[in-house]
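User: Show me a protein chain along with its predicted structure.
Assistant: Here is one chain, sequence first, then structure tokens.
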Amino acid sequence: MPKRLFIAGFDTETNTFVPIPTGRKGFEEGFIAHGNATSLPENYCSAQLHIWRRRAEEHGIEVIESLCTYAEPGGLMVRHVYEEFRDEILADLERAAPVDMVILALHGAMAADGYPDCEGDLLRRIRAIVGTRAIIGAEFDLHAHLTDAMVEHADILVGYKEYPHIDIPDRAEELFTLVHDAACGRTRPVMALADCRMIGTFRPTQQPLRGFVDRMKEMEGRDGILSVSLSHSFPWADNPDVGAKVLVVADGDRALAQARADTLRDEFFAMRHEIAPRFLELDAALDEALAAEGGPVVIADVADNAGGGAPSDSTFCLNRLIERNISNVATGYYWDPIAVKFCFEAGLGARFELRIGGKCGRTSGQPLDLEVTVKGLATDVTQRFGRAASKMGDVAWVEANGIDIILTTLRCQVFHPEGFTKLGLDLASRKIVIVKSIQHFHAGFAPMAERILYVAAPGALSPDFANLPYTQLQRPYWPRVEDPFATES
């Protein structure tokens, strides 16, 4: 029976197309705990570790806890920062050895200078320490690049199935059970990958993908299938492994795992036109929102989503609202620590000229000089992501031209309406709400929205997936090629 479990978490998502370096400060603003995350309040980064400790202790298993850290998605991780965090985990593991199980909370799309596959590198080094005796499991993000190295050096990989990622705790529970069963000798997990040759952002909240995900769940625990994951991958990464893949974990039968993965890949590929994300041009989205009965109509500004590594300070949507004299609108979150500082200095109720946004480069647009009124101020604000708290920093609500704008000191995407409402802003009374997010806003905003629209405004995250400037990806993919399997050399 297993007696010792080693747990750790290391998570960020890397957009190789943005000039925002991910360094130590980014992790400090996110979360860092050196072996004590589970003694602190649970958050987005540490939720899985809390579950694994609880489950292990229920079985009388000793838990050795290492690093747990998270940074908001951005550009390439600074090399020495990656190596420092990686080596901390490895050193803790060497001190803890021997262990029976290793369970990690990873992303799957981390890249650092000199390390295009951080997770594969980390898993390879962990395997070298623990050997084949220990069972290695990892939970990965739905937007992971599943690499051969990850599959080779882990025993069990389990990915989120939902987007928004509301199932992180469920997948953590599942992974512990699978790893524990394997360590007890009840199962012999083997994994197989199937490359879907597809790149995009896909929405399990909509059919037919909703039904596909539900069928994946129904397969688990039956006929020798232990787990099924569909990784959508992260499109904005110049990476040789970018693209959607199916991963199947079977009990001792690799041929079965491969056959099931191949079948699911074919089913997913066959749906490609039905599940392709649809985006409106900005003016078309605004016209549709204004014409809708009632409100609020929620518009997702997908190209400036901090959760994909964008700056979250673009002004394209805001500028167009002003040009068209559209009011009764709320929009956020704008990453602008300087503007927030000025609002706190001026105080609640102050009216003054404030420069907003447009600070991080061409994809941010031009800064806007607006006559604003400070309507709300709050410090250390959090918003919910699932059941965990996600930090926003100090936050200011300003109004200009009949538009309510939420400004933050920490770069973050929109997860939940409380990032607006905690400052006193009544979203239900607004005609339009524009959120800087791709899909994670959906769980919190769908219950209040008259309808939801996705807009392809200018910004750092272009949804023109057929023409993203990949240099490392060598295989054909859809939508650049209609049938990438037919064009295979």
